[in-house]
Design a protein that fits this description.
The protein is mainly alpha-helical. The protein has one domain. Helix content is 72%, strand content 0%. The protein has 5 helices and no strands. It has helices spanning 15-40, 43-64, 72-102, 110-128, 147-182. Helix 3 runs antiparallel to helix 4. The N and C termini lie far apart (47 Å).
């Protein structure tokens, strides 16, 4: 099953929940990206942030335009939004990874740059390496395992992991800084 099929009304009885989750979930993603921009506060950091906001808004629009084969407007909107997310997400994580490596302030540790590069590679595998085409989405019934569907799910789990890991790392750094400023022992 492709991720987008969770929002397809003909396939999922709870498609509305998935689609609203994307719409509402896009908002904290935008805030997260703005927070990274503020944290880095450099031209390159803001460039990365713009890419992240673009990708986050794309997620929101995937919820607005769910996959619906019976409606050309929804399907076209879905394809544009989904592809914008995948390309935008890959570029954003790649740029943030480069930023982590070149950043003299060491806002985030280098290992997060390596993790980000791995996430960007997973995006690239999904975008560029699938053995099947998007036309395979239309084929039903289909094989129980499709590499392109597996890679799409891998993208979702890897980007969630990257966002959570960056968030936890920044939170730990913030707590350490507060303890140092108040004189508490770490």
């Amino acid at each position: 099953m492709y991720v987008s099929e969770l929002g397809e009304r003909a396939v999922s009885q709870t498609a509305w929940l998935f689609n609203w989750g994307l719409i509402i979930g896009g908002i904290p993603l935008i805030i997260f990206m703005l927070g990274l921009g503020i944290k880095y506060n450099s031209i390159f950091g803001w460039l990365c942030t713009v890419g992240g906001i673009y990708s986050s808004v794309s997620v929101l629009f995937v919820g607005i335009f769910p996959m619906d084969f019976d409606n050309d407007i929804f399907m076209t909107g879905h394809m544009i939004s989904a592809l914008s997310f995948f390309y935008g997400g890959m570029i954003t994580v790649l740029l943030f990874s480069v930023l982590i490596f070149v950043d003299k302030k060491k806002v985030l540790p280098k290992w997060l740059g390596i993790f980000g590069l791995l996430v960007a590679v997973i995006f690239a595998l999904f975008i560029f390496l699938p053995e099947s085409s998007l036309d395979d989405v239309l084929i039903r019934p289909r094989s129980r395992f499709l590499i392109v569907a597996f890679l799409e799910w891998l993208v979702v789990f890897s980007i969630f992991s990257w966002i959570i890991t960056v968030s936890i790392t920044l939170n730990i750094q913030r707590r350490k800084k507060i303890k140092l400023e108040t004189g508490d022992s770490p």
